[in-house]
Specification:
Elements (H helix, E strand, L loop, with lengths): L1 E4 L14 H16 L4 E4 L8 H12 L2 H25 L2 H14 L3 H25 L17 H9 L3 E4 L2 E4 L8 E5 L6 H16 L3 E7 L3 H13 L8 E6 L2 E3 L14 H19 L6 H17 L8 E3 L1 H4 L7 H17 L17 H11 L1 H11 L3 H20 L7 H24 L9
Parallel strand pairs: 1-2, 1-6, 6-7, 8-9
Antiparallel strand pairs: 3-4, 4-5
Helix pairs in contact: 2-3, 2-4, 3-5, 4-5, 7-8, 9-10, 12-15, 12-16, 13-15, 13-16, 14-15, 15-16
Bound molecules: arginine (ARG).
Length: about 450
Amino acid sequence: MVCIDYSSINIAKPFHIGHLSTTVIGNALYRIYGFLGYKPVGINHLGDWGTQFGKLIVAYKLWGSKEDIEARSITAMLELYVKFHEEAEKNPALDEQARVWFKKIEDGDEEALSIFNWFKELTLKEVGKIYDLLGVHFDSYAGESFYNDKMQPVIDELKEKGLLEFSEGAYVVRLGDDLPPCIVLKSDGATLYSTRDLAAAFYRKKTYNFHKCLYVVAYQQNLHFRQVFKVIELMGYDWAKDLEHVAFGMVSLEDGTLSTRKGKVVLLKDVLDKAVEKTLSIIEEKSPGLENKEEVAKTVGIGAVVFDTLSSARIKDITFSFDRVLNFDGETGPYVQYTHARCASLLRRADFDWAAADKDYTALNNPEAFATAKLLYSFPDAVARACEKNEPYLITRHIIELAKAMNRFYYEHRIIDEDKAKTAARLMLAACVKQVLKTGLYLIGVGAPERM
Ligand code: ARG
């Protein structure tokens, strides 16, 4: 089994473009590992713990309404949260109330928990819509709060092993000269993000006995994961080496127009909607007669965004541009999808049973067909390398090259002519390309329409 921790959104916070990479890289890895015969476990390690939830409850009780939250969900929660901070500047007593409410959540107070769980439910419902659009799936939503009762044994073990030290007002584990100490408990006994990740690693090892446990999280958390992994290593567990931080760079928008009223937060939903809308207008222009235009626009528009996110090495920062990602002639998702649809159309156009017909493979005796066949042959290797390095872009690049090679073949040679045996051989190549493009797109989480 391979645990893959990805997306891992925060409750009551908008699903913004910052969560795009973790979601699509994680989803691609999930598919790639599954395809190669591993049993992947998709984990959404929800950010559902922390004093901010005390603040949210106070704000809700003072200024919120049930109807408004039901109607506007995360947007309304975010507004309450912002208002809390504005008001707390003037009235510090609010912070104290927030602490009290957070403590109530911790102590399992019924009212506190019911409000908190309601926020959580609404957030997940909203986020679930985006997961549906992206075709993303999770096997577990065990988030930070899930580990409330699972941290003590880890803390006890750290104590027993003499690894826990009181230093500068907190309990820490010293990690040697290369790394700053990992804070495990605050002086008042409060746990931290790291404490929860320690408990989560042990829980995952025990529950899934993973072969690898991946954390698809932005490179900003590099230090955090190095510390957590080191603590486990110092505790004497050799599986610490199987924990891996799959880091990635930042995504920003080239055109600032998508910023919401709230400032810099760019909602992923808005980006996806806009991609679909723009794709639809391209389709209206290019192929107005197409059936299920809306459906195709969805697959192509969303696919374009996903494809672009997986087009370069993870660690590179990406500046997102609609013109680039939706370019049907560039190295884009739509280009690969279009090549797939072109192969599908060739196969539809053949007016004889080419699969059963005798084939004259001398028709493929040319540099274009040979280059195409070579890329088909090396596809499994690209998938294996993508898995080994946790780099889905190795598949993305491969299918771009394959699509280019196929198009060169298509432009240089007539595929369907009077010679049936030669035509059958060329169609066989088109069928293989179609199959591999479809598989490659699937592995990176992108759909492949038959017509576009
Ligand atoms: N919720 C965190 C964030 O948005 C990411 C959590 C990643 N996973 C983990 N096990 N720490 O920054």
